[in-house]
């Protein structure tokens, strides 16, 4: 049977860097919330035992695509030949945007194929496998908005307000590894000791990558300057996307409709339960 599942985007409502591990990875404190907007994956049975994926993403070799890598991890975990599957990807999320498109595709593949192949793997095991693919994959596997620590794998579920967002994608792709290797990055923000009750207080919470990203990419700074006329505007992840929060859809659309020509992005709602998990629950 064919299975179609969403791969939602995420925002980092704030992102603090509190230190660096001996292996070079950065210790973070961040608040993840999902968005209703996202990619979509369709899994269809095929004869034989191959996993195929279409369309390919320009510049990403098929075997490096996080969807194929997630499928390979599950095949290895099962340790036996599994039925063939064709995966169709509807890509809507910009790459290098800090909204987790690749990580979410990987999580949807892990949960989707676990269901499709009836592997019966637990969410804990799928989150462990996901962490091998990227620091952002576990939150997408677990499916609830969360305060994250460590490199993003220690998750405390929480419920920030489900506001509306204007998300702008400046015309640049930002490489996460490159930003984390920048000399001038703030790496010593004092840790928050309890999971925050986030009310969008811009002065208490920030994104520690924002200053450096705005310095390196003037188009990101320009987007932030435009959106911040309407309220606090912030970077997500290591960029490039900038988002602003609004209490209603009509207010978000009003701002979006006033954008100058050349600004691309979307309006969407923040949700604390992942649309992926909502869809999987409906199937059970
Ligand atoms: C910035 C965030 O998007 C916040 O949610 C994530 O922490 C990044 O997660 P991601 O895109 O899945 O990143 P990964 O593919 O795991 O890492 C890419 C590269 O960024 C650097 N990296 C990543 C995460 C982290 N906590 N510290 C790091 O220093 C590492 O050099 C790594 O090789
Ligand atoms: N299915 C996929 N979708 C998007 N990118 C993929 C995929 N598979 C591999 N990649 C690679 O991963 C890189 C990061 O893509 P992604 O969309 O996750 O960026 P991002 O939004 O900056 O993510 P993050 O917030 O996790 O840093 C891409 O530039 C691409 O080379």
TrEMBL record:
Matches recorded under InterPro entries: GHMP_kinase_C_dom, GHMP_kinase_C_sf, GHMP_kinase_N_dom, IspE, Ribosomal_Su5_D2-typ_SF, Ribsml_uS5_D2-typ_fold_subgr
Spans traversing the lipid bilayer: none
Residue span(s) of domain GHMP kinase C-terminal: 212-257
Catalyzed reactions: 4-CDP-2-C-methyl-D-erythritol + ATP = 4-CDP-2-C-methyl-D-erythritol 2-phosphate + ADP + H(+)
Residue numbers annotated as active site: 10, 136
Its EC number(s): 2.7.1.148
Alphabetized UniProt keyword annotations: ATP-binding, Isoprene biosynthesis, Kinase, Nucleotide-binding, Transferase
Annotated GO MF terms: 4-(cytidine 5'-diphospho)-2-C-methyl-D-erythritol kinase activity
NCBIfam families xrefs: ispE
Family to which the UniProt record says this protein belongs: Belongs to the GHMP kinase family. IspE subfamily.
Name of protein: 4-diphosphocytidyl-2-C-methyl-D-erythritol kinase
Organism for this UniProt entry: Marinobacter halodurans
UniProt gene name: ispE
């Amino acid at each position: 049977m064919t299975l179609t599942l969403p791969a939602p985007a995420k925002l980092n409502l704030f992102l603090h860097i509190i230190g660096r591990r001996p292996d070079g990875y950065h210790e973070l404190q961040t608040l993840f919330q999902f968005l209703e907007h996202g990619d979509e994956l369709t899994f269809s049975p095929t004869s034989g035992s191959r996993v195929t994926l279409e369309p390919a993403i320009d510049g990403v070799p098929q075997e490096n695509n996080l969807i194929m890598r997630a499928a390979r991890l599950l095949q290895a975990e099962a340790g036996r030949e599994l039925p063939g599957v064709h995966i169709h990807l509807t890509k809507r999320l910009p790459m290098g945007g800090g909204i987790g498109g690749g990580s979410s595709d990987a999580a949807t593949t892990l949960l989707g194929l676990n269901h499709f192949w009836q592997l019966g793997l637990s969410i804990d095991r799928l989150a462990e496998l996901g962490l091998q693919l990227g620091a952002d994959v576990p939150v997408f596997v677990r499916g609830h908005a969360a305060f994250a620590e460590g490199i993003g794998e220690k998750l405390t579920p929480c419920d920030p307000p489900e506001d509306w967002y204007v998300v702008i994608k400046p015309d640049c792709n930002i490489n996460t590894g490159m930003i984390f290797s920048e000399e001038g990055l703030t790496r010593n923000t004092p840790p928050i000791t309890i999971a925050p009750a986030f009310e969008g207080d811009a002065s208490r919470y920030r994104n520690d990558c924002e200053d450096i990203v705005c310095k390196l990419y003037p188009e990101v700074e320009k987007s932030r300057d435009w959106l911040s006329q309407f309220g606090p505007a912030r970077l997500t992840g290591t960029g490039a996307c900038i988002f602003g929060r609004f209490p209603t859809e009509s207010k978000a659309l009003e701002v979006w409709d006033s954008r100058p020509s050349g600004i691309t992005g979307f309006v969407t709602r923040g949700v604390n339960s992942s649309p992926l998990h909502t869809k999987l629950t409906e199937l059970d």
